[in-house]
Amino acid sequence: MNGTEEIGCCGAYCGTCREYLKTCKGCKPGYLDASRDLSRAKCKMKKCCLTRGHITCGDCGEYESCETIQSFLNHPGYKYGKYKQALEYIRANGHTAFLNTAEHWTGAYGKYPK
Ligand code: SF4
Ligand code: SF4
C-alpha cells in the first residue's frame, strides 16, 4: 500500500486511525485492485474520484465547482472544515507534503505546519 491510499477522496486521513483495517476497511483499499466492487460503494465522491483516476477530489479540475464535494465539505461541523483544509493543503503543497504532515496525527485530521 502506498501512502496515498490512506488519504480519503474527501480529505479524511485514514493512516493514523486505530480502527483502520481492523473494523474499517478505509476509503480506498480493495477498490484500486478491484477486490471490492466500486459500483456498490455508497460514497458518491469516492465513486467519482476513483473512476476518474484521482487520488483525492482535490486533484480534480472540477473541485471548486463540484456540488458533490463542495456540499460535503461545507456541512456544518468541525471535521468537515478539517477535511476541506486537507484537500486545500494537498492542492497547494502536494500529497507528499500532506503525508509528512499527517504522519503524527492521531485521527482523520490534525494540525499543519505554520
Ligand atoms: S466520505 Fe467517502 S471519500 Fe470520504 S473517506 Fe469516506 S468513503 Fe472516502
Ligand atoms: S471533485 Fe467532484 S467531479 Fe471531481 S472527483 Fe470529486 S466528486 Fe468527482
Topology record:
Elements: H1 44-51, H2 67-73, H3 78-93, H4 95-102
Helix pairs in contact: 3-4
The structure holds iron/sulfur cluster (2 copies).
Observed structural traits:
mainly alpha, 114 residues, single chain, binds iron/sulfur cluster, globular
Helix content: 25-40%
What fraction strand?
A: under 5%
| Shape type | globular
- Judged by helices, strands and strand pairing, the structural class is mainly alpha
Q: Can you list the ligands bound to this structure? A: iron/sulfur cluster
What is the string of SSEs from the N terminus onward? HHHH
Protein name: DUF3795 domain-containing protein
Organism: Pseudoflavonifractor intestinihominis
